[in-house]
What does this fold into?
Amino acid sequence: MTIADIRATTVTVPLEAPLRHSMGAHWGRFVRTIVEIVDDEGRSGWGELGGGGESAENAVRSLLPYLKGHDPLQLEQLRWKIMNPTASLYNNRTQLHAAIEMACMDLAGKRLGVRACDLLGGAVRERIPFAAYIFYRYGDEATGAGGETAPDEIVAHAQDLKRRYGFTTHKLKGGHFAPDHDVEVMRALAQAFPDDLLRLDPNGAWSVEQAIRVGHAIEGLKNEYFEDPTWGLEGMRRVRQFVRIPTATNTVVVNFEQLAQSIRHDLVDVVLLDTTFWGGLRQAHKAGTVLETFQYGASVHSSGELGIQLASMLHLGAALPNLGSAADAHYHHLTDDIIVGGKMAYRDGMIDLPKGPGLGVEVDRAKLAEYAELYKAVGGYAYDRDPGRPGWFSTIPEMHYADPALKTAHVGSRR
Ligand code: MG
It folds into this structure.
């Protein structure tokens, strides 16, 4: 079995409501590129990466000369072909490789009749726990969902998510409003969920001093970790010196060079591994085993996945012995998926590892076509733009004070 063709399709799938974060917003939908690798026996393997459009699709297809005739099981050769570290100075292909590796593991698994996680050593768990990913949301006229900004509104949203999905860890995507507003919300969540774990993640929006002040303000809560309170490895080191909450990152340790520095200099406690940012499921797993060796925590990051990438996250979570925390997923914000059978189900805050070979999910081609058409109709959006704040740009660390409306959480916060 060798690779015969590679296809790429951009889709956009609606969210229940637009999600606000420190750099901008997700405008009510996610945009993803679905990668299909076809072998010479007509089998398909599926991969996924963030963003899309003609240039992304062309970038995927341009790798066909590298891939044609390659055996999908030869994954280490694939890494060097596509992601040679020196050639990468000129060709940044980390996320392209991630989607291709996902598709090759799917294909190879289907050929051998084994799951993707079996290619990593097998599953140590069959159900993967997830955290509630809680955002400040704009209201959505079509679904009637969203519009939460005040502490009691966020608590009601979190209670609804817990009722629907069973989450026992609650992660607030902060950094959108002034830091003191996030502190108020965290205290309200702690009061509403005394038995559950909390996380605060402002996406690196605060200065070291702001981050230390917020860290001290929430230190008494049942915090699991304090995620990217500031930007940069040195900033994270400084915050860690002063705040007695384990720190975590998905932004400043995203490759093996940074991982080595972080461990050597003891900079961050928990690394959230992403099956696209790190260059693929196998690369994320490898990083996890390095963390295990040095007894640092590993968690699973979410970059706005549909079902294919979610499956890769499930296989990562299943294979990592040191998964010490519930995984992140934006998945519960989606209204639909492109996989056969529709959205995967949560049970008691967990999702079952798919049982089929490869990634264990199949793409519903009618849904793929439907959401490809939707992308053609509505186009993409910029992660660092906010439809509720036209003319605003995130500039750190002043951004939260540049817009007078954001000094008070309740002013100008709804569309
Ligand atoms: Mg994060």
User: Anything to note?
Assistant: The chain has two domains: 3-118+366-377, 122-359.
